[in-house]
């Protein structure tokens, strides 16, 4: 019997399905891994395969409706990006309900800043840090970057969330948030504060790749967020995966196939992180 993503998440939140069933069991495939405490939580660090000095850094934040998932769910990303010459890191954050979105975003920022501060001993370049998140991790990466919690981010990859603007999402969803979003964002008074779009214009933002799948309404909210960034002067790249990917595969296929999505991510990172080097 196959479960839909909605059924798995709803059952998990109710305690009926273990968190391990949330997403495919995709473990990192890289030659070596180190685990570091960054303060509030831990991160996995995969050094670039060529071990070159001052290699760029790609930091990944997992999804899971803010309440599930773990940093080990990176699929082929660690193998792909370390072989491509990047140091790769995957970050844990305290899950809901033990932490709300604001705390989670601050933890993502703390992890990014820890990596920046320790880049020299990690044989990495502190001036070439990219941050990528999927689903809830996309929301948290966006929130951490746009608020300034993750100061040294030079490139941002936003992969398929509908949580860029919570009041707008509720408006287009019949007046309330979709079921998967409602538990983590039950405090309506905080919706604006928890919406990355609220912080556009606060400071200059790094070049951003916004990607979306064919999941319900994801193209509309993603394009709206990308348009808002672009109007403020941010360099925005877009990847329309509506006809190719669902919400799960737009994450799992990065690095696991040499298709247009992986190429788009590789091209974006190569262009942005290698400027002025």
Please give a structural write-up.
The relative contact order is 0.13. A hairpin with a 4-residue loop joins strand 1 and strand 2. This protein is an alpha/beta fold and 277 residues long. The chain is built from 8 helices and 8 strands. Helix 3 (101-117) packs across helix 4 (136-147). Helix content is 30%, strand content 18%. The chain has helices at residues 5-13, 77-83, 101-117, 136-147, 166-172, 218-231, 249-252, 260-273; strands at residues 34-37, 42-46, 55-61, 87-91, 124-134, 153-159, 208-212, 236-240. It has one domain (25-273): 3-Layer(aba) Sandwich (Rossmann fold).
Could you name the key traits of this structure?
277 residues, 8 helices, Rossmann fold, disordered N terminus, globular, alpha/beta, 8-stranded mixed sheet
Shape: globular
Q: Which strand order do you get reading across the main beta sheet?
A: 1-2-4-3-5-6-7-8
C-alpha Rg (nearest Å): 17 Å
**Percent strand:** 15-25%
Helical content (DSSP H or I, runs of 4+): 25-40%
> Could you give a short account of the major beta sheet?
8 strands, mixed
Order of helices and strands: HEEEHEHEHEHEHEHH
Q: What is the C-level CATH assignment?
A: Alpha Beta
Number of structural domains: 1
- The SS-based structural class is alpha/beta
Total count of strands: 8
